[in-house]
């Protein structure tokens, strides 16, 4: 044995399954898709669709849903009725439609819709 072999540490070779090697090569060969959605976003979109369907049935809203303005909640308010949207202070809301009286239809970040009194909102 030479000097170099004397101090050389023997390391076992890690064996990789052939299937894994092939899979790894195919992943490297294919371009990565930037616009690929994650499972969580798919689940989120399904939930948003469900909320929108519930909103259309409850409020009998047949127009196109367009955001007229964005507002922030001035204070936290619990919902009194099923159609009201509960608010937390500082929450951002999308104003969908202005109805008669002092209420507007809003959508929160979770996709829930409901009536909110104008006096509880700050528009900027």
From TrEMBL:
InterPro entries the record matches: FYB1/2-like, hSH3, SH3-like_dom_sf
Keyword Transferase set for record: no
Residues in Helically-extended SH3 domain copies: 55-121
Cellular component GO terms held in the UniProt record: plasma membrane
Entry keywords, A to Z: Phosphoprotein
Protein name according to UniProt: FYB2 protein
Entry keyword annotation includes Lipoprotein: no
Transmembrane regions: none
Single Gene Ontology BP annotation: protein localization to plasma membrane
Domain of life: Eukaryota
Pfam families: hSH3 (PF14603)
């Amino acid at each position: 044995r030479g000097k170099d072999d004397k101090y050389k540490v023997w390391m076992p070779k890690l064996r990789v399954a052939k299937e894994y090697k092939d899979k790894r090569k195919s992943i490297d060969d294919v371009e990565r898709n930037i616009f690929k959605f994650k499972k969580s976003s798919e689940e989120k979109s399904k939930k948003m669709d469900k909320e929108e369907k519930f909103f259309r049935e409850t409020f009998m809203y047949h127009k196109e849903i367009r955001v007229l303005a964005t507002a922030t909640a001035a204070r936290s308010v619990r919902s009194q009725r099923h159609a009201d949207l509960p608010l937390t202070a500082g929450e951002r809301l999308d104003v969908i439609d202005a109805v008669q009286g002092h209420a507007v239809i809003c959508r929160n970040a979770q996709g829930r819709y409901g009536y909110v009194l104008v006096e509880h909102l700050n528009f900027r």
